[in-house]
Specification:
The chain has a three-stranded antiparallel beta sheet, with no helix packed on it. It has one helix at 53-87; strands at residues 12-18, 30-37, 43-45. The chain has two domains: 1-48, no CATH class; 50-89. The radius of gyration is 19 Å and the shape is elongated. A hairpin with a 5-residue loop joins strand 2 and strand 3 (43-45). It has 89 residues and is an alpha+beta fold.
């Protein structure tokens, strides 16, 4: 069994979170970010990571994909609702 100690502040894991502007990701998206967890169980996003230009570009590309998928899902939900109301499906 893997025993992970949450008492070490240097422990960094990844956590999905509603975004409030970290890493230049637009507010409102849900993404995974590096976090630390304190001994009491609360977490905070690690914000002092030095990012290369390559990493920044990959984050921008990922954001574009997430936004595209979000728009597609909204469109499909709207189309489904219209289909039910217009054609009684």
């Amino acid at each position: 069994m893997n025993n992970m100690s949450l008492s070490k502040l240097s422990t960094c894991i990844s956590c999905y979170s509603y975004i409030v502007g970290w890493y230049d990701v637009p507010e409102g998206l849900v993404c995974s970010f590096p976090v630390t967890i304190n001994p009491k169980g609360s977490w905070s996003v690690v914000q002092d990571i030095n990012q290369t230009n390559e990493v920044k570009e990959k984050i921008k590309e990922a954001v574009k994909v997430i936004i595209t998928y979000t728009h597609c899902i909204k469109f499909l939900k709207t189309a489904s609702i219209l289909q039910k109301h217009l054609f009684n499906f």
